[in-house]
């Protein structure tokens, strides 16, 4: 059978270490096609390369080649009637999240498109994607009823709390004192334990405590900051959707923009789109020195994928005030209330456009969540 279901080979995913398989993935994306392998189980890196670019099929045999479309990479949607058999089915087939042309006018012929990640059903954020990928893989080797947990700025904690229950696990989330109330309260509503450390200046400062609790037993640390399933979830999900939506929507994609917490989603989006077209620019936003924008950090605070992978990007600094200003600009131009990290990314793109660094064309900004969660934050700044 020349085209086999890739789902029959997924047990090999966990055996592939490191990032060398990404060179294969990059090559397939650049060629737009993949060749056959006689026995996929002997080529786990090849299986993983096709999996993370979103293939549904894997070509088995000798001397054949199939296009991305034939491999199912373009199958990003699945529910024309929006009827779902379960909450997880809603997450999986209620895709892609929308890609919306903004009416906001940026300088230099830069056309702004918003990728609305609040359409993910559990945390109303981009973080559902790594939560589902991490927990679904974990469920192949961790017994039901176990306690899973991680440090979080809010969204991942909600997503993990929701998804853990769907897979029969208990959840514990650790948050810094400065986290928004929604991040401390909603995991409790979802039945998770919540530990808030008022002394922790940021999310990553909680990691030693989480690791200590994991070492002393009783906690499975899912580790969003270093678990490659985070990056891979966004390759197969967020990045692939933008690739296919841009093609089908007739965009002249010239760049992407977004923010960094673990760097999982923007590393994947930049890597994937630059694999297809090396000319695609990546504008990444970071909070200005001493600024604090919920969910995101400065690159120098230490991140895995954005520093490990072959990704070409430029950085722009944004204050919280500028992020909220961009939230208001998008709200008043589009009627859409995006979150502060999405606002920061829009502002970063606008800055680069204003500096004449961007050629005319279409630019996709990933909007990680909705501004509805940040009323207390916004009202202080409006
Ligand atoms: C509102 C918002 N915007 C952007 C990001 C950055 O996304 P990644 O770079 O992680 O893909 C996040 C990440 N938040 C994580 C890690 S800090 C959490 O919720 O625990 C976020 O909550």
Could you explain how this protein is built, in words?
There is one protein chain. With about 375 residues, the protein is α/β, with parallel strands linked by helices. It has three domains: about 5-65, Conserved hypothetical protein from pyrococcus furiosus pfu- 392566-001, ParB domain; about 85-120 and about 230-380, Rossmann fold (3-Layer(aba) Sandwich), CATH 3.40.50; about 125-230, 3-Layer(aba) Sandwich (Rossmann fold), CATH 3.40.50.1100. The chain is built from 13 helices and 14 strands. The protein has helices at about 20-30, 45-50, 85-95, 130-140, 155-165, 180-190, 205-215, 230-250, 265-275, 305-310, 320-335, 340-355, 375-380; strands at about 5, 35, 55-60, 65, 100, 110-115, 145-150, 170-175, 195, 220, 255-260, 280-285, 315-320, 360-365. It has a six-stranded mixed β-sheet with strand order 5-6-14-11-12-13, sandwiched between helices. A four-stranded parallel β-sheet has the order 9-8-7-10, with helices on both faces. β8, α6 (about 180-190) and β9 (about 195) form a beta-alpha-beta unit. α1 packs across α2 (about 45-50), α1 (about 20-30) crosses α9 and α11 crosses α12 (about 340-355). The chain is globular and about 65 Å long. The model has no long low-confidence stretch (mean pLDDT about 95).
